[in-house]
Amino acid sequence: MTQSKLVNFRRANSHDIPAMSTIRLAVGENVLSDPGRITVQMYEDYLELLGRGWVAEVDGSVAGFCYANQTNASIWALFMAPEYEGRGLAKQLLNMAVEWLFEQGQEFVRLSTGAGTRADSFYALQGWTRERVDGNEVFYLLASSRVAVQAAS
Questions:
Q1: Residues in CB range of 36: below 8 A, 6 or more apart
Q2: Using an 8 Å Cβ cutoff, are 10 and 47 in contact?
Q3: Lowest-pLDDT range, 22-31, 45-54, 117-126?
Q4: Alpha-carbon gap, residue 4 to 73, rounded angstroms
Q5: Rounded distance, CA 69 to CA 52, Å?
Q6: Exposed e or buried b for every residue in 71-98, given b needs 16+ CB within 10 A?
C-alpha cells in the first residue's frame, strides 16, 4: 500500500532558489549549454521585479517551479524534478503563472522551448498555439479567454 504525499503550491521565495537551480540543472531535455548563464540574481529578479514565481512542494521539498515574466508576458521557466514528472504538478504551476499574467492585464502569454521535446508536446496538449519554429526552438502563444471571446463575437 502506497502512502499519499502532501502537495502544496505556493509563491516562490529566495529560500527556494537553491532547490530551483538544482532542478533546472537536473533536466534531461532543454539542457543549458552554459549552466552559468542562469544566475541567482535572475531567479531573484523574477520573484518580484520582473514577474512572479511559484513552486510545487511534495512533503515539504520543492518538486518543481514556474516563473512568469510580466515585462514581456511570457513564461520564463517551468521545470520539474525528474522524479515528480507526469503527476500533473507542472500543469498546475503553469496555470497559476498564466492566470496571474492574465490578471495583470496581459491578453497573450508566450513561451519557447526545444522543438521535438516532451515540453513541446506538453504545451500543445495544454492548448497553446504554435506560432513558429526557429531552428531547434519552438514558440507558443496562449490567448486569454477575454481575447478568445472577442474573436468569436
A1: none
A2: no
A3: 22-31
A4: 36
A5: 7
A6: eebbbbbbbbbeebbebebbebbbebbb
Could you give the domains of the chain?
A: 7-152 (3.40.630.30)
> By the 8 A CB rule, do 95 and 75 touch?
no
Residue type, 83: E
Backbone phi and psi for residue 84, each to the nearest 5 degrees, phi listed first:
-110, 5
Residue 12 near residue 65 (C-beta atoms within 8 A): yes
Phi, psi of 81 (to 5 degrees): -65, 140
Angle (CA) 31-32-34 rounded to 5° is 150
Helix spans in 1-82 (H): 17-25, 40-47
CA distance linking residue 20 with residue 54, whole number of Å: 10
CA 123-43-85 angle, 5° bins: 40
How many whole angstroms from its chain centre is CA 23? 12
Per residue in 97-134, pLDDT tens? 999 999 999 999 999 999 999 999 999 999 999 999 99
